[in-house]
Write a structure and sequence with these properties.
By secondary structure, this protein is an alpha/beta fold. It has 2 domains: 81 residues, Arc Repressor Mutant, subunit A (Orthogonal Bundle), CATH 1.10.10.10; 71 residues, Periplasmic binding protein-like II (D-Maltodextrin-Binding Protein, domain 2). The protein contains 6 helices and 6 strands, in the order αααββαβαβαββ. Strand 1 and strand 2 form a beta hairpin. Helix 1 packs across helix 3. The radius of gyration is 22 Å and the shape is elongated. The two termini are 30 Å apart.
Length: 159
Protein backbone atom coordinates (compact mmCIF):
# COMPACT_ATOMS: atom_id res chain seq x y z
CA UNK A 1 0.00 0.00 0.00
CA UNK A 2 1.34 3.44 -0.88
CA UNK A 3 0.17 7.04 -0.71
CA UNK A 4 -0.62 7.18 -4.45
CA UNK A 5 -3.08 4.31 -4.04
CA UNK A 6 -4.61 5.90 -0.96
CA UNK A 7 -4.91 9.33 -2.59
CA UNK A 8 -6.70 7.81 -5.58
CA UNK A 9 -9.01 5.74 -3.38
CA UNK A 10 -9.91 8.68 -1.13
CA UNK A 11 -10.55 11.04 -4.04
CA UNK A 12 -12.78 8.49 -5.81
CA UNK A 13 -14.60 7.79 -2.55
CA UNK A 14 -15.24 11.48 -1.93
CA UNK A 15 -16.37 12.28 -5.47
CA UNK A 16 -17.87 8.87 -6.30
CA UNK A 17 -16.42 9.32 -9.76
CA UNK A 18 -13.20 7.99 -11.27
CA UNK A 19 -13.27 10.77 -13.88
CA UNK A 20 -13.65 13.58 -11.33
CA UNK A 21 -11.01 11.99 -9.10
CA UNK A 22 -8.59 11.85 -12.02
CA UNK A 23 -9.23 15.52 -12.81
CA UNK A 24 -8.76 16.54 -9.19
CA UNK A 25 -5.51 14.57 -8.91
CA UNK A 26 -4.25 15.68 -12.34
CA UNK A 27 -3.91 12.06 -13.42
CA UNK A 28 -5.42 10.03 -16.23
CA UNK A 29 -8.53 8.01 -15.45
CA UNK A 30 -6.76 4.71 -16.28
CA UNK A 31 -4.00 5.62 -13.78
CA UNK A 32 -6.56 6.21 -11.03
CA UNK A 33 -8.34 2.95 -11.91
CA UNK A 34 -5.05 1.02 -11.80
CA UNK A 35 -4.11 2.49 -8.43
CA UNK A 36 -7.50 1.59 -6.95
CA UNK A 37 -7.41 -1.91 -8.48
CA UNK A 38 -3.93 -2.47 -7.04
CA UNK A 39 -5.12 -1.36 -3.59
CA UNK A 40 -8.16 -3.65 -3.85
CA UNK A 41 -5.86 -6.61 -4.64
CA UNK A 42 -3.70 -5.80 -1.61
CA UNK A 43 -6.73 -5.48 0.67
CA UNK A 44 -8.37 -8.61 -0.74
CA UNK A 45 -11.70 -7.09 -1.67
CA UNK A 46 -13.56 -4.54 -3.75
CA UNK A 47 -13.70 -0.97 -2.45
CA UNK A 48 -16.29 0.19 -4.98
CA UNK A 49 -19.31 -1.14 -6.81
CA UNK A 50 -18.98 0.22 -10.34
CA UNK A 51 -21.65 0.49 -12.98
CA UNK A 52 -21.89 2.55 -16.13
CA UNK A 53 -24.04 5.08 -14.27
CA UNK A 54 -22.53 5.30 -10.78
CA UNK A 55 -19.77 4.40 -8.36
CA UNK A 56 -20.64 3.39 -4.80
CA UNK A 57 -18.51 2.38 -1.85
CA UNK A 58 -18.71 -1.23 -0.75
CA UNK A 59 -18.88 -2.09 2.94
CA UNK A 60 -15.10 -2.58 2.85
CA UNK A 61 -14.69 0.79 1.11
CA UNK A 62 -16.80 2.57 3.70
CA UNK A 63 -14.89 0.95 6.56
CA UNK A 64 -11.50 1.71 4.97
CA UNK A 65 -12.16 5.35 4.01
CA UNK A 66 -11.55 6.90 7.43
CA UNK A 67 -8.42 4.80 7.95
CA UNK A 68 -7.10 5.82 4.53
CA UNK A 69 -7.69 9.51 5.30
CA UNK A 70 -5.90 9.19 8.65
CA UNK A 71 -2.97 7.34 7.06
CA UNK A 72 -2.62 10.10 4.47
CA UNK A 73 -2.74 12.82 7.14
CA UNK A 74 0.00 11.06 9.09
CA UNK A 75 2.09 10.58 5.96
CA UNK A 76 1.75 14.24 4.98
CA UNK A 77 2.60 15.41 8.51
CA UNK A 78 5.64 13.10 8.68
CA UNK A 79 6.84 14.33 5.29
CA UNK A 80 6.48 17.95 6.39
CA UNK A 81 8.37 17.35 9.66
CA UNK A 82 11.16 15.54 7.80
CA UNK A 83 11.38 18.36 5.26
CA UNK A 84 11.65 20.93 8.04
CA UNK A 85 14.38 18.96 9.79
CA UNK A 86 16.28 18.21 6.60
CA UNK A 87 18.02 21.58 6.34
CA UNK A 88 18.88 22.22 9.97
CA UNK A 89 15.24 22.27 10.94
CA UNK A 90 12.45 24.72 11.19
CA UNK A 91 10.64 25.81 14.30
CA UNK A 92 7.24 27.43 13.80
CA UNK A 93 6.22 29.64 16.72
CA UNK A 94 2.69 31.06 16.84
CA UNK A 95 1.80 34.04 19.01
CA UNK A 96 -1.12 36.41 19.45
CA UNK A 97 0.25 39.46 21.30
CA UNK A 98 2.57 41.64 19.21
CA UNK A 99 4.90 41.97 22.26
CA UNK A 100 5.49 38.20 22.56
CA UNK A 101 8.28 37.92 19.93
CA UNK A 102 10.41 40.25 22.09
CA UNK A 103 10.26 37.65 24.89
CA UNK A 104 11.66 35.10 22.43
CA UNK A 105 14.87 36.97 21.59
CA UNK A 106 17.09 35.36 24.29
CA UNK A 107 15.65 31.91 23.61
CA UNK A 108 16.09 32.23 19.85
CA UNK A 109 19.66 33.49 20.24
CA UNK A 110 20.56 30.44 22.33
CA UNK A 111 18.73 28.11 19.97
CA UNK A 112 20.62 29.46 16.97
CA UNK A 113 23.95 29.00 18.78
CA UNK A 114 23.15 25.42 19.81
CA UNK A 115 21.48 24.32 16.55
CA UNK A 116 23.21 25.98 13.65
CA UNK A 117 21.05 26.06 10.57
CA UNK A 118 17.69 26.10 12.36
CA UNK A 119 15.14 28.39 10.80
CA UNK A 120 12.56 30.00 13.09
CA UNK A 121 9.29 31.11 11.58
CA UNK A 122 7.05 33.42 13.63
CA UNK A 123 3.33 33.42 12.92
CA UNK A 124 0.85 35.82 14.52
CA UNK A 125 -2.81 34.91 14.95
CA UNK A 126 -5.66 34.81 17.47
CA UNK A 127 -4.92 32.67 20.56
CA UNK A 128 -7.68 30.10 19.96
CA UNK A 129 -6.74 29.74 16.30
CA UNK A 130 -3.09 29.25 17.27
CA UNK A 131 -4.02 26.49 19.72
CA UNK A 132 -6.09 24.80 17.00
CA UNK A 133 -3.08 25.06 14.64
CA UNK A 134 -0.90 23.42 17.31
CA UNK A 135 -3.38 20.56 17.64
CA UNK A 136 -3.31 20.10 13.85
CA UNK A 137 0.53 20.16 14.05
CA UNK A 138 0.75 23.19 11.78
CA UNK A 139 2.92 25.00 14.35
CA UNK A 140 5.46 23.69 16.87
CA UNK A 141 4.92 26.13 19.75
CA UNK A 142 2.20 28.54 20.82
CA UNK A 143 3.22 31.42 23.06
CA UNK A 144 0.70 33.28 25.13
CA UNK A 145 -0.82 33.96 28.47
CA UNK A 146 -2.70 31.01 29.95
CA UNK A 147 -5.08 33.42 31.66
CA UNK A 148 -5.45 37.14 32.25
CA UNK A 149 -4.42 36.74 35.90
CA UNK A 150 -0.94 35.35 35.16
CA UNK A 151 1.90 37.79 35.55
CA UNK A 152 4.21 35.89 33.17
CA UNK A 153 3.51 34.22 29.84
CA UNK A 154 2.89 30.49 29.71
CA UNK A 155 4.10 28.50 26.77
CA UNK A 156 2.19 25.63 25.18
CA UNK A 157 3.93 23.43 22.71
CA UNK A 158 5.25 20.15 21.45
CA UNK A 159 8.97 19.88 20.88
Amino acid sequence: MNTAQLECFVQVALSLSFRRAAEELHLSQPTVSKQVASLERELGGALFVRSTRQVLLTQLGEAFLQDAQEILQLAYAAEERARRLGNGGELVVAYSDSNEPMRLVPVLDRLRRERAGIHVLLSQGPREANIARLQREEVDVVMGFASESLAAGAEFGRL
